[in-house]
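Per reviewer request, we include the raw input and output of the structure prediction for the construct analysed in the revised manuscript.
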Amino acid sequence: MEEFKSGFVSIIGRTNVGKSTLLNLLVGEKVAAIANKVQTTRTAIKGIVNRKNAQIIFTDTPGIHKPKHKLNETMIETSYASLQDADLILFIIEATSENIGKGDRIILEKIKEAKRKTILIINKIDIKKKEKLLNLIEIYSKEYKFESVIPIEATNTKYKDIVLDEIEKSLKPGPAYYDIEEYTDQTLRQLAEETIREKALRILQDEVPHGIYVEVEKMKTRKNKKNEEIYDIEATIYCLRESHKGIIIGKNGEMLKRIGRAARIDMEENFGVKVNLKTWVKVKQDWIDNPKIVNKFKIN
């Protein structure tokens, strides 16, 4: 009988390279917020993959970027802290790179310091020529002894087992740290907050800067007249300015209704129960520099 393996895998890379997309692909559930904007992931989110002879625990870290305020600093601290506890690192870069850019160079140096087993993932290969891809692999392979280099398209399910097989090869024998039915260590409250924030980012597009965060004030279960379980969720979307509040609410409240509707549908699918969602919008100026709020995004 094959020996059971387990381990903690940290996913690291610059902002918007596809870390959360890859995590959701590998876990097979939506555990990380995905939006076509930088800095979507603000905390280290764990996703759990249970295989026949292995349990893989993933941490999707905030993207590495130049810090502009307290929140940014905390996000970067979280990313680097995750490397120290990892059994294996997945370092994601984009296939569009011609060379090792400044941001990727900083991450590479941190990986060298951590001295951890690392798999290099080259994402977005559908927009890259083969010769240039091979050149990129050669450049990175000279810098660090990677366990393997895997070119992928994180939105394509055919790469799921390719990546998981390579990860499993690099893990040591160990126990299952979580119940095999679990796929994340996030609470339902955190998942609800992540879902609402993702929908807000997607629907608002570039109309509101990245300065929003969501707080679930109330989350209770009850049975309806048909004896079906329902989650009553009340959440507040906080923004930095009064002008942003108007945009988020929209004319006759239409924008907020769209965000709430999209989030509710997603939550019902993920939670497997009906959801009654109520959302409000409040202004909280300079929250991104408020230690009490920012500390929520630190790694546990």
